[in-house]
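Reopening this one. Same input as before:
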Amino acid sequence: MALPSTLHTFDVALSHVDRGLDLQLAIKAARHPSETAERLWLRLLAFCWQWEETIAFGAGLSSEPEEPDLLALGPDGSTRTLLVRVGRPEVSRVEKDLARGGGARVAVLFEGERRLEAFLAEARAGRPERLAKAELAAVPSTLLSILAKRDERRQKVGLTIVADHLYLDLGKESVDAPLVRATV
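Same output, byte for byte:
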């Protein structure tokens, strides 16, 4: 019998200064038994980084592995306006998102600078023009390691994003790190 997903609730005070956002969000994220704490935090950071009114987590690891990790729909409820992948997506998967996304923005948040660099090297060896419209960024693995130590099922998080820098208030602990961006 398969283990069920664990529901994590994040009460996030999000201030995305560059976009003029100041929000209180209650974010519920189901963590698949095979998902690491680092990946859960990466999905949360991507949710806040790309936040828009209709953003939601995708179907998940177990049911639809080809679906994006996050997506947002337009006013009609069916047109995708945003597709987000996290972690270690393959170049071909991001190319397909851009080709079949119907005009949706495509963003990728990598788990560390090394993974971003490897993705860029692979993309540049192929047809880099296919990925020109993708928004690519990485969260340093050192930050993800710190966040992964906080594995409670309900957490309060203050997140401020200013000029591609993340500042997190985790109660008794504050951490920050750059959001490393790149283009193909």
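So the earlier flakiness isn't reproducible anymore. For the record, Residues 6-182 form a domain with the Restriction endonuclease-like alpha-beta roll fold fold (CATH 3.10.640.10).
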